[in-house]
Amino acid sequence: MERERRKCTDEFKQKIVELNLGGKRQATLSREYDLTLSAVNGWVKRFNNSGSFKASSADYGAKVNLVLSNKDKYSNSAMGKALKISRATVYYREEPRLIDEGIVEAIKDISRASKNNYGTRKNKVELEKRDIIVSRCRIGHIIAENGLVFNYTVSSSKFNNQQPQFVATPGNSRNSLPKRQFRVNLVRELGCETLS
After folding, report:
1. What ranges do the domains of the chain cover?
2. Taking burial as the number of CB atoms within 10 A of a residue's CB, which of 11, 91, 159, 178 is the most buried?
């Protein structure tokens, strides 16, 4: 049986928390008011921690910044336990990607000098000659972001669009000739020496 999600007011949550602090068990409150036990437990915890029922992201951000600013003095796990935040938020923070305009200009300069013939490998070598270390993957992203198209990436068809010299007709189709005879006829039509 699926329970319908309800939105409770802060006054109602305050009443539930006061009843719990007055000595009524959370399980009894959840049964009497048709609430989930996890909701009642969450309201009581939030009210005891911060005095309100809203999880404030500003408080959370301040806690994370406090941990990050003091990580050379104290261990991350100890501060996380004291501030009641997960260690994962401290250990796995994504650094913002910085794009150095000098790298972009260097790649554009290399492409102009090479007449658009260098790809990521040769660009990496040329950048290393200029004492710039960048991965080939990043070079590829910069190339794509700036719309640089190199000659080897432009598709060009070198094949002749003429009809093939050997055309299967009812008299010389593959099915009507034995395998050896078919190959001999094909070689003759292509202008090569006969097979031995």
Report:
1. 10-91, 101-153, 167-196
2. 91
Angle between helices 101-113 and 120-129 (to 10 degrees): 110
User: pLDDT digit string (tens) for 67-110?
Assistant: 888 878 888 788 888 887 877 777 766 666 666 788 888 888 88
Residue matched to tokens 């200009």: 105
- Pseudo-torsion of CA 20, 23, 28, 34, nearest 10°? -30
- The length of the chain is 196
- Alpha-carbon distances of 193 from 73, 172, 177, 186, 190, rounded to whole Å: 84, 19, 20, 11, 9
Close Cβ partners of 108 (under 8 Å, ≥ 6 residues apart): 146, 148
Does residue 153 sit in helix, strand or coil? helix
Q: Which residues contact 59 (CB under 8 A, 6 or more apart)?
A: 50
Its pTM stands at: 0.33
Match 């260690």 to its residue by tokens.
87
Span 129-151, average pLDDT: 84
Burial label, 80 (beta-carbon count in 10 A; 0-12, 13-18, 19+): buried
